[in-house]
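Weekly modeling sync, notes
Attendees: S.R. (lead), two postdocs, one rotation student

Agenda item 3: backlog of single-chain predictions. S.R. asked that every request posted to the team notebook include the full sequence so nobody has to chase files. The rotation student volunteered to paste the first one in as an example of the format we agreed on. Action items at the bottom.

Example entry:
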Amino acid sequence: MRGPMVSGVINQLLTTTDWGELDYLVIDMPPGTGDIHLTLCQVAPLTAAVIVTTPQKLAFIDVAKGVRMFSKLKVPCVAVVENMCYFDADEKRYYPFGKGSGTQVVQQFGIPNLFDLPIRTTLSSSGDTGIPEVVSDPQGDVAKIFQNLGVCVVQQCAKIRQQVSTAVSYDRSIRAIRVKVPDSDEEFFLHPATVRRNDRSAQSVDEWTGEQKVQYGDVPEDIEPEEIRPMGNYAVSITWPDGF
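Predicted structure, as returned to the notebook:
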């Protein structure tokens, strides 16, 4: 599935599933920078991303695209995991796929943490049996790597939540949408009717034909938003009295 179909499925999964009370929701994304990634970043308020790579140079090229995508969508990357990094034998450590891909990602993009995972038969079999190695061998070296990764992600998420984000609200006293610029005292105002007429979301524009569903004359000058709420890390969703 691509385009509107995959966007609809992801929207339905995220917004209609009863997730219950969660401390964290971990989303395992497929490789690449396609429709699934873009939709998730736009719909879900993702706090942070963990980049998973392998030592090969080709993997770095693919990962670099992902890091840049997250950067544009305002999702901070807090750690890099280099999988299949090495194996130990004969009292030596071997790097069959070479070194440096994970380190290169960390250095080039300023990601603060790097974790190396070994090639290990027990690690592979734990995925097949459904019993993670952190459970079957909680004192082992692989379990400690995962534990350190978990601690790192929790700490980084706590730091991110303390940061001030862009605030968008409706000021009824002046009948304008107020936008506060992050990390500054600046703010600006938008006329609600102008915002409504320039809405390019799927509710206002046909995704297949590009035809504008809401015409200029359909929007009254005195229209006011009913609700403004965050969507993702860089956008807001506005509910209008016309049902969109």
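Discussion: group reviewed the output briefly. The chain has two domains: 47-162, 167-239.
Action items: rotation student to repeat for the remaining queue; S.R. to check formatting next week.
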